[in-house]
Amino acid sequence: MEIKYANTLCDLPPYIFAEIDKKKKELQEKGIDIISFGVGDPDEPTPDFILKTMKLAIKKPEYHKYPFGKGLKIFREEVASFYKRRFNVSLDPNSEVHALIGSKEGLAHITLAFLNPGDIALCPEPGYPAYASSTIINKGKVFYMPLKEENHFFPDFDKIPAEIVSKSKIMFLNSPNNPTASVYKEEDFVKAINFAKKNNIILVHDAAYTEMYYDNKKPMSFLEVEGSREVGVEFHSLSKTYNMTGWRIGFIVGNKDIIKGLEKIKDNFDSGVFSAIQETAAVAMREGDSFAEKMRSIYQKRRDFFIKNMRNLGFKVTPPEASFYVWTKVPEGFSSSEFAEFLLDKCAIVVTPGNGFGPSGEGYIRFALTVSEKRMEEAFERMSAIKFFE
Ligand code: PLP
Questions:
Q1: Count of CB atoms situated within 10 Å of the CB of 78
Q2: Rounded to the nearest whole angstrom, what is the distance from the C-alpha of residue 208 to the centroid of ligand 1?
Q3: pLDDT digits (tens, 9 = 90+) for 233-274
Q4: Which of 20, 78, 181, 189 is the most exposed place for a label (fewest CB within 10 A)?
Q5: Model confidence pTM above 0.90
Q6: Are 142 and 132 in contact (CB under 8 A)?
Q7: Is the minimum distance from the CB of 182 to ligand 1 under 6 angstroms?
Q8: pLDDT tens per residue across span 377-390
Q9: If you measure from the C-alpha of residue 388 to the centroid of ligand 1, how many angstroms do you get, rounded to a whole number?
């Protein structure tokens, strides 16, 4: 029998991080010592205080049942406390917070709740691939909003044609941004909220990286901005802040009717987040501020070391204000993919080619600073043998 995939599956671009991981593993199997700046997955382990909590939580028989619904009270209340403490945003844990199996899960499902076939989702590009994939899989249409350096990688709403705007139901935004590391300010969010209100578009803000910042410049939550809750929601994640990518835990906060829509989809698709993980995540949020601070100082040292060494090699690189990404132009004469391949061939270094995040990423590469300083030193030793610029 011939197995035929749905058209939507054929329309999906290859998932760039999975492709990179495959290539890396192939080379490693050949015995090559790869230094990977590819995928944004923290290299440090989940801290002990979180592991200890999980060891106890996992023994509770009541947690061995289906964890249906919006999440444990203790988890939702801790999300609300975290938002109050960190952003001075008050949330009703009963109606304005919902647990997710990682924020990617929620981002992937939210379009199902709001797009009818042919409706448009406005997706930033370069951007985290889940926004467009979610739209394509759920039979919506993607309109890409280019993020340009001259506009601090914020979309230009005036460039979206009126006939596109009128068919748009959802807009995705992401700050601190993956891959550009751009951090949006209040006036950016005000622009987005006004645009969303005027055109009846649901605003979905992805805030996975708000806790990975440098020089003590704290990125803001979209929900700090007046009017945000009328039009939108924010997705957040414990993955990056507490080195918990493998645990699959995140949440959505904000407009309760939007959350209700996602909840209905999730009720039909999954049965919630393992309760032991939710309880542990609550403790991570309650007791994890000093751990997050410790991680920030590690990333700060890495960022400073990395930027200094890149500049020594001749790259004109802007230090990120937040996120653990460095987004930089490739040397003249190379495309993004050519330069990524060049680094792999000549230095056994993995980076992500910018065009993998969308056509406006052409001419850039992304480094994830999820590599120890010692390994970074080695990477720069390898690169110092090459003359990148005349
Ligand atoms: N949003 C952005 C911008 C990301 O880069 C990622 C992961 O890399 C996610 C969301 C998903 O995070 P998670 O599903 O682990 O919460």
A1: 23
A2: 6
A3: 999 999 999 999 999 999 999 999 999 999 999 999 999 999
A4: 20
A5: yes
A6: yes
A7: no
A8: 999 999 999 998 87
A9: 32
